[in-house]
Amino acid sequence: MHRLLPVVLALVLSVTAAQVKAQDAPAEDRPGVNPRDSARDASSDTRKGVLRVVVADPFIELHTGPGRGYPVFYVVERGAQISILKRRTDWFQVRTDRGVRGWVPRAQMIDTLLPTGEPLDLGEPVRDNYMSRRWQGGVAAGDFGGASLISAFGGYAFSDHLSIELTLNHVLGEFSNGYGATLGLLHVFAPEWRLSPYFTLGTGVIYTDPKSTLVRTEDRTDQIGYVGGGLQLYVTRRFMLRSEYRHNVIFTDRNENEEVTEWKYLGFAFFF
Amino acid sequence: MEISRLRLLLLTALACVALPGCAMFSRGAPLPPIGAGSEAATRADAATDQTGPADRPVIEPAVERREIRRPRIDTEDFELGMYVGILNIEDFESNAVYGARLAYHLTEDFFLEASLGQSRAGRTSYERLSGAADLLTDDDRDYTYYALSLGWNILPGEVFVGENRAYNTSFYVLAGIGSTTFAGDDRFTVNAGFGYRILPADWLALHFDVRDHIFDIDLLGRKKIVNNLEAHLGLSIFF
Fold first, then answer.
1. Interface probe with A: pick from B68, B69, B70, B73, most Cβ of A within 10 Å
2. Are residues A75 and A193 in the same domain?
3. Which CATH class, in words, describes the domain spanning B78-238?
């Protein structure tokens, strides 16, 4: 229980140290003109390989934080160069040649140009090109033969239609608990539709742990095979909702195989 | 046996012939016939010698191809951190809780969070007062949980410390599902709560969180829903 304590303490201490250091250089905390390191930053950015872009709109606005509500405190005119320091969701932290740091939304960032004159391509996963995103992940909740099911999945798409998917299941039932991992293929019939059905087929293992208070049965690990189908709904940007049904066959070492119906009522998936 | 050996021999021979043949094709142009080759080469050499410096273009178009390597933008959508706080386990006292969290910020409004925490249950009042045998063994008093939640930054903002400092903050609500291992069993758990995040630097966040972990338990004879409230302070870094 106390294993994590030293790590937490170390983190707290290091932050305190960082804070003390930050107090020595107050100009860093609040966005604003900091002429001390302006010229140096511009030249070192070029050297370090920080992406520099040229403002092509009449001006772009710098916000104090990465969110639409944060106030605009500075504007950069057309023709000026800025360095892109980092990105958080749809916001870009930039630094001007005068050393001003602020956050610019994606909508303004896509109108900037690279020093070569090309438009800046941010490769966004919008509806037009979401199919070209290869990696996908998500979580889902549902029912596994009467027990609660928590499921996490990750997939890699070979093509627009076909992908391979790894699913980790945690089954929480009244009589037994279980963990499962399956690997399967998933075929999306019409990825260009907003609501598209898919078919899935795969295999894996399931570990079942009956509750000790009930009948004395052994823990066991069995192979599992499944066939199923589902619906995926493209919501916006890079999010999808999905709902899935699977028919599982558990290959037990008894005389009969077990058949289990699995429903993932609601799943939430996103593209990387 | 005999036949297969013969076959092997023939196949080896075929391979010996075919492979150099293929290699010749891969060079593109067919090789000139032997004898004629050397003659053609001499003629070509002579032609090159005749092209004097006068025939060469004034400017050699030797444009060096510049390799453009576009720097990648450092994306900081993940947040990894630790927390320490107090967990009130219903009927089993309150105790310290330690945990780790990993969040992925989908948009400026929404994030997914996976958290993993552990604590330890104390003794019930019944165990204390009655002097009877304990309800749980020592191992069964370990309390661990994981939770997968969706968070919503409902009130983003700034706080001002003194005259020169402004820190970005966010008040968020979150809810999700997970599992709690307690009293020798995994239990499906629903969690919901709210939190407040302050960013002293762009890469660093301090959290204050309050969560309720709700699950069914039938430990004390009758099945009931328990609410285990947790309050914790956390620290996380964006990467």
1. B73
2. no
3. mainly beta
Closest-CA distance, B31 to chain A, in angstroms, reads: 42
Contact A182, A167 (CB under 8 A): yes
Cross-chain residue pair B100–A5, CB shorter than 8 Å = no
Q: State whether residue B190 sits within 8 Å of chain A by CB.
A: no
Decide if B73 and A116 are in contact by the 8 Å CB cutoff: no
CB-based contacts of A74: which residues, under 8 Å, 6+ apart?
A31, A61, A62, A96, A100, A102
Please tell me the total count of domains within chain A: 2
Beta-carbon separation of A65 and B158 below 8 A = yes
Q: Inter-chain contact B188–A150, Cβ cutoff 8 Å?
A: yes
Report, in angstroms and rounded to the nearest whole number, the Rg of chain B calculated over CA atoms. 37
Chain position carrying tokens 């990894």: B80
Domain edges within chain B: 2-55, 78-238
Query: Is A8 among the domain residues?
Result: no
A148 and A259 belong to one structural domain: yes
Listed range (A52-66, B60-74, B181-195) with the worst mean pLDDT: B60-74
B51 and A CB contact within 8 Å? no
Is pLDDT of B238 > 60?
yes
Q: Which of A74, A90, A122 is the last residue of a domain?
A: A122
Same domain, A146 and A265: yes
**Is the domain of A108 the same as that of A205?**
no
Q: How far is B58 from chain A (nearest CA, A)?
A: 29
Q: What is the CATH number of the domain that holds A48?
A: 2.30.30.40
Structure pTM? 0.72
pLDDT, average across residues A204-223: 77
Residue ending a domain, choose from A58, A90, A122: A122
Residues A234-262 pLDDT 10s: 887 778 899 999 999 988 887 888 888 99
Q: Do A268 and B119 touch (CB under 8 A)?
A: no
CB A227 within 8 A of CB A245: no
Which residues span the domain enclosing A73?
Answer: 31-122
Q: Give the residue with greater pLDDT, B4 vs B74.
A: B74
State how far the alpha carbon of B199 is from the alpha carbons of A46, A88, B58, B209, in Å: 28, 13, 63, 15
